[in-house]
Structure formats: C-alpha cells, structure tokens
Amino acid sequence: MEDNRIYGEYDRYLSPLDVWAIAFGCTIGWGAFMMPGTTFLPVAGPLGTAIAMAISVFIMLIIGANFYFLMRHRPGTGGVYAYTKAAFDRDHAFLCAWFLSLSYLTILFMNATSLFLVIRMVFGRRLQYGYYYYNIAGNHIFMGEVGASIVALATIGLLFINAKPLLQKLQTILAVILLLGVVIVAAVCLPRMKLEGLQDAFGIRGVNPAFGIFSIVMLAPWAFVGFEVISLETAHFDFKIQRSRWIIIASIVLSGIVYIALTLVGVCARPDDYASWQAYIGDLGRLNGVDAAPTFYAAKSIMGSAGLLIVAIAALAAILTGMMAAYRATTRVLSTMAEDNILSEKFSKTTYSILFIMVVSIVISIFGRNALQCFMELTSLGAIIAFGYTSVSTWRIARKIGNRRFVMLGALGTVISVAFIVVQLIPGLTAVETMGSDAFLILAIWCLLGFLFYLRTVVRSSATANMGASASGAVLFALLLYSSVMWLAKRLMAAESVYAVRSTLKLEGSIMLAVIFIGLGVMIHIQRLVRRNHDALRRQSIEQAKPLDSDGADR
Questions:
Q1: How far apart are CA 240 and CA 221, in angstroms?
Q2: Which has more pLDDT, 81 or 5?
Q3: How many other CB atoms sit within 10 Å of the CB of residue 286?
Q4: Could you tell me which of 261, 235, 295, 317 has the C-alpha nearest to residue 21?
Q5: In degrees rounded to 5, what are phi and psi of residue 76?
Q6: Where are the domains of the chain?
Q7: Positive or negative CA dihedral for 12, 16, 18, 19?
Q8: CA angle 417, 443, 44 (to 5 degrees)
Q9: Distance CA 300, CA 308 (A)
C-alpha cells in the first residue's frame, strides 16, 4: 500500500479541517438555498425531499468509498485523471478530465453570478444602477451586478496566486460559518414547521410521490459534485490518507443534512396571502426579492432581520467557498493534463492556469446568470462521467489485487453512474428537465473543442505514445452527434408555427450539420495520424528485428 508520505517533494499544508472545508465548501453552493423553492418542494415536497436526499447520501457514500480506495492506492495531485490513466490509459483519462473540467468551471462562474442575488435579498436592487446597459435573450444585464461577479472572480484568483495560505484559511473559516449559519437557522425555524397531513408532505405538481423522490435522487450528481476535489490534493495532506475516509463521509453526510434542513426551513413560514405552503411555492414565479426565496423568507419571518442576515451570510459563504474550491480543482485538472502533454505546458504553471480560468469566467459571467442557466445542467454530466470512471477504475484495480469488497463497490458505483448518465441524456425520464436545448448545444460545442485538443495531443505525441482514437474519438463523436440532434429536436418542438419550424430547420439545421461534419472531419484526421504513427512504429520494430551479418550489415 502506497502512503502519501512518499511524496516528500510536495508542501504539506492541508489539515483535516482544511480538507473538509474544501470538500464541503465545493459541494454546497447557492443552489442549496434556492433549489428548495424552485425544484425540491414542487417535485417531492418536504418529506419526499428528505427521503430522496437520504438515498442520495447513501449513493454518494458508495462513490466516495471508491474515491477513498483510489486515493490510498494512487496518492498525488492527479485525482480522477491519474486513477483513470492507471486503470486504463491516457485516452480514457483525457475524456474524463475534459468533461470534469467543464463541471468545475461551471461551478466557478455560476457561483460568481449568484453573488448579486444574495445582495438583492439583503439590499434590494441597489446594484441595478445606471439602467441596464445590454440585453441578452430578453434578460436585462446590469453593470453593478455583473461588476460584483467580476470583482469576486478577480479577487479570489489574485489571492490564489499571491496569498494562497491566506485564501486557504479564509476558505476553512467560511466553510465553518456556512455550516453554523445553516444549523442556527434550522434550529430556530424547524420547531415552527407544521404539516397538516401526509398529503402536505409531498410535491405540488401532481407527481406520484415515488416518482418525485426518484426525480430528486437523479439530481444527486449535481447536488453532491465537489466532495471529490480533495482527491486532487492528497499530496498536500499533512496527515495520513487513511483519515480521508472520515472526511469524505463527513462532507457527504453534512451536505445531505444541509439540503434537507434548508428544504424543511422553506415550509416553516409563508406570506399571509397563501393558505398553504403548496399555494406559496406554486406562486413563486410571480414574487420578487425575499418573498421569492422560501428559505430566506422563513428565516426573516421567524427570526426577523437577524435571521435574514444569518441566512444571507451563510449563502455568501457557500458561494465563496464554492468559487475557491472550483478555482483550485480546475487548476489541478488543467495542470495535470498539461503535465501529460494534452494541454500546453503553460497550464502546468499555477499562475497561468489561474489567470486563464479567471479571464474565461469573467467573459462568461458578462452574459448574466439567467443566460447561463444551461451551464448548470452540464455540471451533473461532468460529475457523472468522473464518478463512473472512478468506479470502474476501482473495480479494475481492486480486481487485480484481489480486494473483493471494492470490486463490489466499484461495480455498484459503475451501475449507478450508468443509470445517472442515461437519465441525464434522455429527456422525460424524471419530473425535472435534466438537459435543455441550449445545454445540448453547449455539450456539442464542448465535444468539438475536445476533438481539437485531442488532435493537438495526437500531433505532439510520439509514435510510441498510447493514444488510440478508440475511446475519446468514438465517445466524443457519439455525444457530439447525439447532442446536436437533440438540440435541433428541442428547438423544433419549441416552434409555435410552421413558419418557425421552417426557419429553425434552415438556421439551426445548418449549424447542426456544420458541427457534425467538422467533428467527423477531425475524427477521421485523428485516425489517420494514429494509423500513421502505428505504421511507423511497426516499421521501426521490423527494422530492429532484422538479423545482422558478421560485418554488421543487414542480411
């Protein structure tokens, strides 16, 4: 068994509390405070959500056990990339890391664009000064609100470069504040919760309770993505890796408790105009400010301004810890791929990676949060792929060393991940839309970008490099084709007239064909390069195998 102490060249600055703060802080973000009103309560209700989250915690503990197994056997900074490469090859590792980096990047700028929402809850619309200066997809984007996101992204990025120890301490403090804030609000509000009967314990959309619970369970990759980021930091632990088992368990269980607590808080109070929590939740789309966020409203209604301040501080801490952990995780993934010659060697330098991530996130955040909702749907996809590769890697490695327990856990995690990916990509299997049309378009573009980066890798690889196009090429093109078709299909379904259908077919159909044929062309070119490299390697082997005459010449 390998121990992380063999990595003496790394600085060991992360205590158990620091590592927990990274995992917990990345898992709990702004969504934990808003999803109770927008998704959890409408679909499954308070009791249904509690049951679903308990099941989700159990599922994530299985995935977490697989991460723990690989962290012990493959300590370092590569995380799931290193695990996948060890179990399979660099081809699979690239595929996994490519989609996981999209998840972490999405966590970063989605949390950043949530900052102004917290400010709205406490201070109203004071950042909407100077009137909106541009409009995207019908959404008014205000300079003050976008500015808050940009300042946060730049500040955290610069602290990461120039004051990393301070940033780590700040992240730990904020994670503790987040947990304490939720505990205080829940302890005061939950005794006020009153449900008039079992019928009040489930959702309000006419969804069968079992189906509602299943729908929320299928959101587990989104809800719990982030706890696995500590696998990227094992070389920096100042304690034995064996203790990380309890850190993983604590982060997953506490995250589940936070989701349940904030959901239950959301039904503890309602405005006087509504006779039940169902009526209140069903009318959220017409409300503004604190009234439109049940968790915030309950805290203010029951605890007064102090309650609103506490829940706002907790939400702010969740956003900032999520951003810090996402910066760290994205940097680790990019640097790992750079060290393996997939990305430019510039990304192996922390400063370059941070600045790159900062600039990309700032540019994306300019589009405004409402226009970026589709990215949130892709967070789950990257997490599912990472969970799946981790589980199947656990199964393969455990099978080699004869560890039956983790063979079973790896197989179980793989089956769970396959179920998640099927539900994620096929519309209509749950009560919640997992992928909208824009999300499918972004997925197609991300697959196309993956082809281009993969092409760069093949071009720069030697003939002996194990870079076959069987895994990445096939999966990327299959996802590109499927997501392009689904994007066009959803756009056609949204058309309201025959004229709109014809217009959609002309424009979106042309875009779809362009994306597909570009991807196909790149894939064919990659296959040619790989074949040429293999042919060159074969000729070299033949030449080396030829016997020589006594004078040293070929016979």
A1: 28
A2: 81
A3: 8
A4: 317
A5: 155, -155
A6: 4-435, 437-542
A7: positive
A8: 50
A9: 5
Q: Tens digit of pLDDT for each residue in 35-64?
A: 998 889 999 889 999 999 999 999 999 999
Residue holding tokens 């505990």? 183
Cross-strand pairs, 141: 134
- The span from the CA of 225 to the CA of 23, in Å, is 9
Distance CA 210, CA 215 (A): 9
Distance CA 88, CA 151 (A): 41
Query: Does 541 score more than 50 pLDDT?
Result: yes
Query: In this structure, which CATH number among 3.90.180.10, 1.20.1740.10, 3.40.50.1970, 1.25.40.180 belongs to the domain 4-435?
Result: 1.20.1740.10
Q: Which residues contact 510 (CB under 8 A, 6 or more apart)?
A: none
User: What's at 239, amino acid-wise?
Assistant: F
**How far is Cα 172 from Cα 332, in angstroms, rounded to an integer?**
19
Q: Which residues contact 503 (CB under 8 A, 6 or more apart)?
A: 495
How many CB atoms neighbour CB 283 within 10 A? 15
> Where do runs of H (alpha helix) occur along 242-284?
244-265, 277-282
Angle, helices 437-460/90-112, rounded to nearest 10 degrees = 140
Contacts by 475-479, CB closer than 8 A, 24 or more apart: 475/95, 476/95, 476/447, 476/450, 476/451, 476/519, 476/523, 477/447, 477/451, 477/519, 477/520, 477/523, 479/443, 479/444, 479/447
Structure pTM?
A: 0.90
Inter-axis angle of helices 80-87 and 90-112, nearest 10: 160
Strand partners, 14: 237
DSSP 270: -
Q: Which residue has the tokens 């959890």?
A: 40
Looking at the DSSP bridge assignments, the partners of residue 237 are 14
Phi/psi of residue 23, nearest 5 degrees: -65, -50
- Categorize the per-residue pLDDT at 6 as very low, low, confident or very high, splitting at 50, 70 and 90: very low
What are residue 461's phi and psi, to 5 degrees?
Answer: -85, 150
Residue with tokens 């801490």: 317
Say how many Å lie between the first and final Cα of the chain, rounded. 50
Tokens 């810890």, located at residue = 321
369 SS3 class: coil
Task: Please enumerate in sequence order all residues whose Cβ is within 8 A of that of 288, keeping only pairs 6 or more positions apart, or say none.
Answer: none
CB atoms within 10 A of CB 243: 11
Instruction: Give which of 220, 185, 194 is closest to 314, Cα–Cα.
Output: 185
Beta partners for residue 136, in sequence order:
139
